[in-house]
Write a structure and sequence with these properties.
Largest sheet: 8 strands, mixed
Shape: globular
CATH class: Alpha Beta
Number of strands: 8
Radius of gyration: 17 Å
Strand content: 25-35%
Helix content: 25-40%
CATH architecture: 2-Layer Sandwich
CATH superfamily: archaeoglobus fulgidus dsm 4304 superfamily
Structural class: alpha+beta
CATH topology: archaeoglobus fulgidus dsm 4304 fold
């Protein structure tokens, strides 16, 4: 399929999925029992198609013990296209989600939620399909504008839509003098609650604990598979 056909098809799907988004709180911080993080990597990202690994770790929100962990490995045929990351990576995460014995109350995704040109980042995409609360927590800005951010840990400023001035999420300094992270709701949460949840997941590192440990788990599986080949 040509890139143009990909884009036409993907835009249609994003427009349909966006109708399913509910940017209101389905759950409060106090009611969360299980929270999960996702991450994804590729065995050889420069090959096309290539094999990808998607993981999900589920934690007890009070004790931070891992109560479930799953992964999915499959061939990824969709190329990377800016603004359409979900079509390349979400299928592996969705496949892994089906294997969970304990479903999380909130899923934190390594990527954006509504902080996206069409409000359909990968966290929004997954949240709309699974019909669950999701949060996007990204390491780089994709879309939006924000004011200067102080260097101290815990500082944050709103992330605005440059066209409408609507708040899309927050830019959060998770560690002092370290590049901020970009937090936005994916589904069934407000921007404010998404921010509070992520702040409660910080354990001294730049990334929240669910996605940080999911990243480590993902890399351990990748290393094991590469060693077998």
């Amino acid at each position: 399929m040509s890139k143009e056909k990909y884009l036409k098809s993907f835009l249609k799907i994003q427009n349909e999925l966006r109708k399913n988004l509910v940017l209101e709180d389905k759950i409060s911080l106090e009611k969360i029992r299980y929270i999960a993080g996702t991450d994804l990597t590729f065995l050889n990202p420069f090959n096309h198609p290539c094999r990808g690994i998607g993981v999900i770790l589920v934690f007890d929100f009070k004790t931070w013990k891992i109560v479930d962990k799953v992964y999915s490995i499959d061939i990824v045929n969709v190329p990377y296209i800016p603004g359409f990351l979900a079509f390349r990576e979400a299928p592996l995460i969705l496949s892994a989600y089906k294997k969970l014995k304990i479903k999380p109350d909130v899923l934190i995704v390594d990527g954006h939620g509504i902080a996206h040109p069409r409000k359909m980042g990968i966290a929004a995409h997954i949240g709309a399909i699974l019909n669950i609360p999701t949060i996007g927590c990204a390491k780089k800005l994709l879309y939006g504008k924000y004011d200067d951010l102080k260097v101290d840990a815990g500082e944050y400023v709103p992330l605005y839509d440059p066209k409408t001035n609507e708040i899309l999420g927050y830019v959060l300094r998770s560690r002092k003098k370290v590049s901020p992270i970009f937090v936005s709701p994916g589904n069934y949460l407000t921007s404010e609650t998404a921010l509070e949840i992520v702040k409660n997941c910080l354990k001294g590192y730049r990334l929240p604990e669910p996605t940080r440990l999911a990243h480590l788990y993902c890399n351990s599986i990748r290393k094991e598979l590469l060693n077998k080949n």
